[in-house]
Design a protein that fits this description.
Blueprint (H helix, E strand, L loop, with lengths): L4 E5 L4 H12 L3 E6 L18 E5 L12 E4 L6 H6 L1 H22 L2 E7 L26 H21 L3 E6 L2 E2 L10 H10 L4 E4 L5 E3 L1 E2 H12 L9 E3 L4 E3 H12 L5 E4 L14 H7 L7 H17 L1
The protein binds nicotinamide-adenine-dinucleotide and uridine-5'-diphosphate.
Length: 314
């Protein structure tokens, strides 16, 4: 198995770079492709000279002909600021990207994992969200390019599974944070930490009572690898995330406790279609992957703060 070649799309991004490192550490040969839309070669600095690692500039909206045994399909901008900058390209990346990677998986008989998202549940009426919930997504709003693109990708995965007997794994990732998040991607954890480190005010959208559940990146990657290595009958969709739920005000207070400084909370209007609450039901992952998160928010934030502190100093 260790001689097998693994393709990671979007491998120069936040999650992708952690995944590439983990797979190389486990002894695999990794081919990373990325168009560097939000990713960066610097995220892969530790791997660039490793003979088990190869980096190729490629856009998943175009076909790719390589020989691999497993595909992790992560290519797609993930933060609202980034995915709303060029919404047409975001949908193309999810949909054409899925078609191209599924076509590749079919040709080379590879197992393929899709990085789907809790956004497929939209602004949910069911709490916490189990995999059986079909979601409440606005099909024509500013978040739709991402949400509906990811939903269509899931559809394609299951049609390839039913029609072509492909070995698929669909993972619904809930908000994940950690070192190598993009400092300007507008996501709440990076925003609050960078603002606190610069002694700027903390920007709370809405009344700050909306909730999210934050998973530390190492936990997430462990869940992803376990899902890929699980038996073929486990297709997902399967939620992976940390069920500890916080309001944005609680998150801001935790960040301020760790960073110190003089920042105050300031309030801005809530963006359109911003989900009011989100928390994964992870009983399926616990049961089938023997996976539960191990890193609490305080510990994960500490690691992330120290990453951003050195990034800002440089
Ligand atoms: P990221 O923006 O850091 O990484 C995405 C990577 O994909 C980047 O390196 C980017 O350059 C690359 N990319 C974008 N479009 C591409 C294209 N057309 N062709 C090739 N490469 C392309 O985001 P991330 O947080 O690492 O997210 C990775 C995946 O996980 C995404 O698919 C995202 O939807 C999913 N996800 C992430 C989270 C989270 O909280 N981080 C939550 C749910 C789902
Ligand atoms: N948010 C906030 N201040 C910020 C950035 C985000 O209050 O500076 C809020 C945002 O409105 C949302 C939550 O934090 O309710 C999570 O936002 P993020 O963009 O990180 O993720 P998503 O909305 O995709 O879950």
């Amino acid at each position: 198995m260790e001689d097998n070649r693994i393709l990671v799309t979007g491998g120069a991004g936040f999650l992708g770079s952690h995944l590439c490192e983990r797979l190389v550490r486990d002894g695999y040969n990794v081919l990373c492709i990325d168009n560097f839309y939000t990713g960066n070669k610097k995220n892969l600095a530790a791997l660039l000279n490793n003979p088990s690692f190869e980096l190729m500039r490629h856009d998943v909206t175009f076909p790719l002909y390589v020989e691999v045994d497993e595909i992790y399909n992560l290519a797609c901008p993930a933060s609202p600021i980034h995915y709303q900058r060029d919404p047409v390209q975001t949908t193309k990346t999810s949909v054409h990207g899925a078609i191209n990677m599924l076509g590749l998986a079919k040709r080379v008989k590879a197992r393929i994992l899709q990085a789907s998202t809790s956004e497929v549940y939209g602004d949910p009426e069911i709490h916490p969200q189990p995999e059986a919930y079909w979601g409440r997504v606005n099909p024509i709003g500013p978040r739709s390019c991402y949400d509906e693109g990811k939903r269509c990708a899931e559809t394609l995965f299951f049609d390839y599974y039913r029609q072509h007997s492909l070995r698929i794994k669909v993972m619904r990732i809930f908000n994940t944070y950690g070192p190598r998040m993009h400092p300007n991607d507008g996501r709440v954890v990076s925003n609050f930490i960078v603002q606190a480190l610069k002694n700027k005010d903390i920007t709370i959208y809405g009344d700050g009572k909306q909730t999210r559940s934050f998973c530390y990146v190492d936990d997430l990657i462990e869940g992803m690898v376990r899902l890929m290595r699980s038996s073929d009958d486990l297709t997902g969709p399967i939620n992976v995330g940390n069920p500890d739920e916080y309001t944005m005000i609680e998150l801001a207070e935790s960040v301020l406790r760790l960073v110190g400084g003089k920042s105050k909370l300031i309030f801005f209007p809530l963006p359109q279609d911003d989900p009011k609450q989100r928390k994964p039901d992870i009983s399926l992952a616990a049961d089938r992957l023997d996976w539960t998160p191990t890193v609490g928010l305080e510990d994960g934030l500490r690691e992330t703060v120290s990453y951003f502190r050195s990034l800002l100093m440089n």
